[in-house]
Amino acid sequence: MAMVCSPRMLLLSITYFILLSLCPAQGSDPSQFNGGSILAMAGRNSVAIAIDARFGLGMQTISTGSDGDFNGNGRVSEGGNPRILQLPNSNVLLAWTGLYGDGIGFAEEMNVQLARKVRRAGCMGFPGSSGSIMERKMSPRSITMLMSHLLYRRRNAPYYIEPVVVGLETVCIPILLETKGLGSDDIRPKELQSTLDGNPSDQLISTQKESAMTQQKVYRRIQKPFLCGTDMLGAQSTSKSFVCSGVASRSLHGTAEAMWKPDLEGDELVEVCGRAFVSALERDILSGYGAVVYLIQGGKGEDGAEDDVQITEYVLACRND
Predict the structure, then answer these.
(1) pTM recorded for the entire structure
(2) What pLDDT, in 10s, does the model give residues 196-234?
(3) What is the CA radius of gyration of the chain?
(4) CA atoms within a 13 Å half-sphere pointing along the CA-CB vector of 136
(5) Residue 154 — φ and ψ, nearest 5°?
């Protein structure tokens, strides 16, 4: 028995398949199932990272918490922001989007590995090390390498997350200092000087009292911004300007590239990062419902002291539709 398809049903079927091809379902990618977006920018001696407050199951919104605080374990407390954050030390902040369950599991594994690395460094007892074991801080680059190793180790059953690492990295830069040397008369003994004064030919040499300029190379420690994003297999993508992650990454790339400027101060960096982030969230339905910006700003003390780092939280209002 042959089935006859009406023109209306045929038109609806064609329209349905066209919509599926043009608008792929978000549920096909597990890393986008819970939504969420992250944007990080670099400034002068500071970095800023913005996260949204929406937690959903596909198109359904479950939570819109936007007042998360760090607890003792370096993670956001329950009932706060749904994005998972980690604060290994005062110079580094980790955040990631993706599947919420995988994010929690990866956060626990990172806590175990970081504690093991710090404890192992303390047991070695290197000469010249001062302070307690907990005072030793891992650099953002070292934490990024550890995170990439953990993600690639699970390549057969990966974590469906996209981490972002921001922080301030202490580096040493060479500085050339010009010092004025001593004159030629000052370095000669008195006996030799009296002999030269009696000889006219040698006296011509002694009258050249131009002091020599010598250059001395010294090293100064500064805190340089560090931004890095990885995929679920740990492939790193570092940047000196900005990195983004999440379901609204395409919109974030456009707005951040249009608004970011080099050498932004702390207040200007927060304003530019917040505007770029909120502007991109208004073009994505799986992100938004508030945003939080964390500013990591280095101290103004000399010699790049790591203890002078300050972390400030800014809560931004967004559209909730």
Answers:
(1) 0.72
(2) 455 554 544 444 444 445 667 777 788 899 999 999 999
(3) 29
(4) 20
(5) -100, 35
